[in-house]
């Protein structure tokens, strides 16, 4: 096999490896984007639940103050 043929085969192998790596990184990137969106949605839900809990606690404290004031 001539040196040029070996060089061409080597380059073809490297190109094939790079394409495979690119495909793998694209798949990983899509998965990470999905996970990021999921975590952002979860964070939004948790912040809303935290706000609701704070509202509930503040309302409860206000009712307790009114009860104490009426005694």
What is the structure about, briefly put?
The protein is mostly helical and 71 residues long. The chain has one helix spanning 3-70.
Can you walk through the features of this model?
With about 70 residues, the chain is mainly α. About 95% of the residues lie in helices and about 0% in strands. It is built from 1 helix and no strands. The chain has one helix at about 5-70.
Give the SSE order as H and E letters: H
Helical percentage: over 70%
- Beta-strand percent range: under 5%
**How would a textbook summarize the main sheet?**
none
Q: State the distance separating the first and last CA atoms.
A: 102 Å
- The geometry reads as rod-shaped
Rg from alpha-carbon coordinates: 30 Å
Number of helical stretches of at least 4 residues: 1
- What is the residue-averaged pLDDT? 96
**SS content category:** mainly alpha
Count the E strands: 0
State the low-pLDDT regions, or none.
none
Topology summary:
Layout: H1 3-70
Structure keywords:
71 residues, mainly alpha, 1 helix, 96% helix, 0% strand, rod-shaped
